[in-house]
Design brief:
alpha/beta, Rossmann fold, N-(1-d-carboxylethyl)-l-norvaline Dehydrogenase, domain 2, eight-stranded mixed β-sheet, 11 helices, 47% helix, globular
Length: 289
């Protein structure tokens, strides 16, 4: 696979990041297919992408004409064979569970052409955890995105079996689509920015779980000193509390750390109440239009 061969992008998972990533590549001229397991999920994704296309213009990240031209280039499907048929590059954004990621890559390895490149948008898992399950570990690496409303920075992280050619191709693809690639030399949980962010999130959750201070006050402390637009709990609402919980719970189960377990349980109360963040209209805070 060469850079000029990439025409079709397949997004596995129609959640918040899958929507943003799919829209971005469509806006850069690629044909995009977004795959998920139910029509209900895809219907919601389509509506949210339409809203995102307007928001990204308001954020001055894209002009109105480019945004409007991107929407017709996106196909939504629950048919894995149709999704895989023409895919040149795959980016996965399913829940943060290595077994699940391995299963879906294994499924699409049997459907995609041999030269198709596989990438994962995982936030804190290491690609080596499920690289062999992809069936093409040398053509697989992490290609991680942040909120595309605010930044073009992406992480490219190879695992020990990733070929040099694959890493270089993803770097070229990122640059061609107006992204700013940070290429890691080795695997690291959380890449660069997320590694630092996870420490902030853990500390913030611990303060809240121990009732050291109310959530708004913890945010105010961070915003007031660091002069940022958002505090850690607003950031978590943006990420999605289900995602934050999934990551926290996974590492809590691995480390058996009592505070990590307590933080996971603290988050679960919000999840059980349907408060998953901005995408549901309420998380730690309530959100309107």
């Amino acid at each position: 696979m060469k850079l000029e061969d990439i025409k079709n992008v397949l997004i596995l998972g129609a959640g918040t990041m899958g929507q943003q990533i799919g829209f971005w590549f469509a806006a850069k001229g690629y044909d995009v297919i977004i795959y998920d397991i139910s029509d209900e999920i895809l219907t919601k994704a389509r509506k949210r992408i339409e809203k995102f296309s307007k928001t990204i213009v308001k954020f001055n990240r894209m002009d109105r004409e480019t945004a409007s031209e991107a929407l017709p280039k996106i196909i939504f499907t629950t048919d894995s064979k149709i999704a895989a048929e023409k895919a040149d590059i795959v980016n996965e954004s399913v829940p943060e569970k290595p077994e699940l990621k391995g299963e879906i890559f294994n499924q699409f390895n049997k459907l995609c052409k041999d030269e198709t490149i596989f990438t994962t948008n995982t936030s804190t898992l290491l690609p080596s955890m499920f690289a062999d399950a992809t069936g093409r570990p040398e053509k697989f690496c992490a290609f991680h995105f942040h909120d595309l409303l605010v930044t073009s920075v992406v992480d490219i992280m190879p695992h020990p079996k990733t070929s040099i050619e694959t890493t270089e191709l993803i770097k070229q693809f990122a640059e061609k689509t107006d992204l700013i690639p940070i290429v890691l030399k080795k695997e690291n949980v959380g890449y660069v920015f997320n590694y630092m962010l996870s420490a902030l999130i853990t500390a913030s959750l611990t303060l809240a779980q121990k009732e050291v201070a109310p959530i708004p006050e913890i945010d105010r402390a961070w915003i007031g000193v660091m002069h940022t637009h958002a505090g850690p709990f607003t950031i978590m609402d943006s990420i999605g509390l289900d995602t934050v919980h999934s990551v926290t719970e996974f590492w809590a189960s691995k480390t058996k750390d009592k505070q990590a377990i307590a933080n996971a349980n603290f988050l679960k109360k919000y999840i059980d109440a349907g408060k998953k963040g901005i995408k549901t209209g309420e998380g730690f805070y309530k959100y309107g239009n």
